[in-house]
Specification:
The chain has 263 residues and is α/β, with parallel strands linked by helices. It is built from 10 helices and 8 strands. Strand 6, helix 6 and strand 7 form a beta-alpha-beta unit.
Length: 263
């Protein structure tokens, strides 16, 4: 079974209705999708989809692009979703993006800290976005490294080898997207070869970042097979082994799936 550990299923970028996208997943042996919220307005629909489709789970949080003007009401809502929905298995997408800086750095940092505290309180993993912010991401996460509840994944990893190692040193997972199939991503393919196999996850980040040979198209979860093929080539192992490794890693990280017997 394949797990897409990060996708955005309520985007209006998709060309087909969701039920057709789900059918395509089933035909491609994709048995589980983690649907990610990026802003408060998405929470209800994210939860409703996970309740409607047995193979969809969700994570709730506020993307760093959306962190201005946050207040306690929003974070209380995140807490309430976690408490009331068993298929909410993570906190995020959260983190820091100093490349685009759509939100002020101080607001991103404050939001990231709040998400971390919520994740620690509920013993849930974090889904972390980090772009041009490796030092700050590390410093913030390392300030909590002695808390046994700290866990998570650096999603859509495009960082340095040092950052990958720093994150694995505190138990975080590294998730690779279709970017590793791009012609100019040889440095990232090298990092795939260096990451601990028990810390590798795979994702689409759909509808964004369609892998080669579908680059330029609207990405869908079924395209994850191309990323898996790339990882199998890099590691010189069978695609079925990549599927097994990444699925096992997913369940090791997102323990609420098993804990609530909802697989």
């Amino acid at each position: 079974m394949i797990v897409d550990s990060h996708c955005h299923l309520i985007s209006n970028r998709y060309k087909k209705p969701l039920h057709e996208i789900i059918d395509t997943c089933m035909a491609s042996n994709i048995g589980l999708l983690l649907n990610i919220a990026t802003k408060e307005q998405e929470f209800d629909e994210i939860v409703n989809l996970s309740n409607k489709y047995k193979q969809i789970y969700n994570s709730v949080g506020i993307h760093p692009h959306e962190t201005e003007n946050l207040d306690a009401v929003i974070f209380n809502k995140i807490n309430n979703v976690i408490k009331n929905n068993k298929k909410t298995i993570a906190v995020g997408e959260t983190g820091l993006d100093f490349y685009y800086n759509h939100s002020k750095k101080k607001d991103q940092i404050a939001s990231f800290e709040k998400h971390i505290n919520i994740a620690l309180e509920h013993d849930l993993p974090l889904v972390v976005h980090s772009r041009e912010a490796e030092k700050e991401t590390k410093d913030i996460l390392y300030s909590h490294k002695n808390n046994s509840n700290l866990s998570g994944v650096i999603h859509c990893f495009t960082g340095t080898e040092t950052f990958a190692r720093d994150m694995m040193n505190i138990g975080f997972y590294i998730s690779f997207s279709g970017i590793i199939t791009f012609k100019n991503s040889s440095y990232l393919r090298n990092i795939v070869s260096l990451v601990d196999r028990d810390k590798i996850l795979v994702e689409t980040d759909s509808p964004y970042l369609a892998p080669t040979p579908n680059r330029g198209k609207t990405n869908i979860p079924a395209f994850i097979v191309h990323t898996i093929k790339q990882i199998s080539d890099i590691l010189n192992i069978e695609e079925a082994e990549v599927e097994s490794i990444t699925s096992s890693n997913f369940f090791n990280l997102f323990k609420r799936v098993k804990a609530n017997n909802i697989t």
